[in-house]
Write a structure and sequence with these properties.
The chain is an alpha/beta fold. It is built from 15 helices and 7 strands. The protein folds into 3 domains: 90 residues, Multidrug-efflux Transporter Regulator, Chain: A, Domain 2 (Orthogonal Bundle); 79 residues, Methionine synthase domain (Methyltransferase, Methionine Synthase (B12-binding Domains), Chain A, domain 1); 124 residues, Cobalamin-binding domain (Rossmann fold, 3-Layer(aba) Sandwich).
């Protein structure tokens, strides 16, 4: 555990209460160590450091109150005021600075420092802002640094793994509710899906039920998933036009059954024309709004069509019932309906013909 993270948790969450040595160094006690271990355990389960610290301090406060040992010096009793006292603006860093700090941590493969930066991003702003203003620009920078040879595959994979775990904790409610359904995937050969995953997080927070298939998804599997879930939107993301063009025919067929949206740098006017798909731009928040409005209008139109079909069916049923009643009044012959009566008449004629 780095001193940077310990100081961050002390100042942001009021988690630690170190004393000072004669030389001014922080001295952490047994209780500090216990809290840190509990936070680390929760974080390994996918809980953010901020939420883990809140849970640890709340449990400690509840235990102290239950045993009658709570007093004004308990570190968990005044967490809010401590955070406020230390959160006077000096701890709130602008997104470009957070992106730089996160890139530095990733370059050094320093997981603790990277988590501390992410904690700051998600603590100081909304999830939407943390994703759009920090994570997306960060991954743009990662791509640029990799192309320039300043970071390697190890750093790129490390960054993806770190952020994927953080975003995964925000995707736990994707299957809940009754909102519109979206199927998200990258086409075959596309393995960079962090931005698509980020978009899924924003969709989930807007009430969507997300079915996330992830990178390198065969079009046949994507089609099967769409047919199974009847989504309000199928979203495909690719960095290269070839990711779409190689499967244009299959994607056109998929678009005949479900609304297909494409995103990423691989989206060009020609691609949109070839696969006859809708387009999502680089603004993830605006894309969520656009997709939500589209789904709302689509569902409204489907409801209106359903009502029209039910009304037409009802009118047809009424007409058939009326026709059946009128027919039964005219059809009986010796207690039999037309078909039987006609058969009887035919038999009668057959019997009478020799006598004619």
């Amino acid at each position: 555990m780095s001193t940077h993270v310990l100081r961050a948790w002390e100042s942001r969450y009021g988690l630690l209460t170190p004393s000072r040595s004669s030389g001014g160094y922080r001295l952490y006690g047994v209780d500090d160590e216990r809290r840190v271990r509990e936070v680390l355990s929760l974080r390994d389960q996918g809980v953010s450091a901020m939420e883990a610290a809140r849970q640890v301090l709340a449990a400690e406060r509840a235990g102290a109150q239950a045993t009658g040992e709570a007093d004004g010096d308990d570190p968990g009793l005044d967490t809010g005021s401590r955070v406020a006292a230390n959160g006077d603006g000096s701890l709130r860093v602008d997104p470009p600075m957070l992106v730089t700090q996160l890139l530095d941590a990733i370059t050094a493969l320093d997981e603790d420092r990277a988590h501390a930066v992410l904690d700051t991003a998600f603590l100081d702003r909304s999830v939407e802002s943390a994703v759009v203003d920090v994570l997306v620009p960060f991954f743009v920078k990662v791509g640029e640094q990799w192309e320039l040879g300043r970071i390697g595959i190890a750093q790129e994979h490390f960054a993806s793994s770190l952020v994927r775990r953080r975003l995964g904790a925000l995707s736990m409610t994707w299957g809940l509710g009754t909102g519109p359904v979206a199927v998200l995937a990258c086409p075959p050969g596309e393995f960079h899906d962090i931005i698509l995953l980020s978009f899924g997080v924003l969709l989930g927070r807007a009430g969507w039920r997300v079915r996330y298939l992830g990178p390198d998804t065969p079009i046949a599997s994507l089609t099967a998933a769409a047919d199974l879930t009847s989504p309000d939107a199928v979203v495909l993301a690719s960095r290269r036009p070839s990711g779409f063009r190689a499967h244009a025919k299959e994607l056109r067929r998929l678009g005949d059954r479900h609304p297909v949206w494409v995103a990423g740098r691989g989206t060009t006017p020609r691609i949109l024309e070839e696969i006859r798909a809708y387009h999502l731009g680089p603004d993830l928040v605006a894309d969520v709004q656009q997709l939500t409005e589209f789904a709302r209008q689509r569902r409204r139109a489907a409801g209106e069509r359903s009502e029209a079909v039910e009304q037409e069916h009802g009118e047809r049923s009424d007409a058939q019932r009326n026709g059946s009643v009128n027919g039964r009044q005219a059809e009986p012959v010796n207690g039999r309906v037309n078909g039987h009566a006609a058969h009887a008449t035919s038999e009668a004629r057959s019997d009478s013909e020799p006598h004619a």
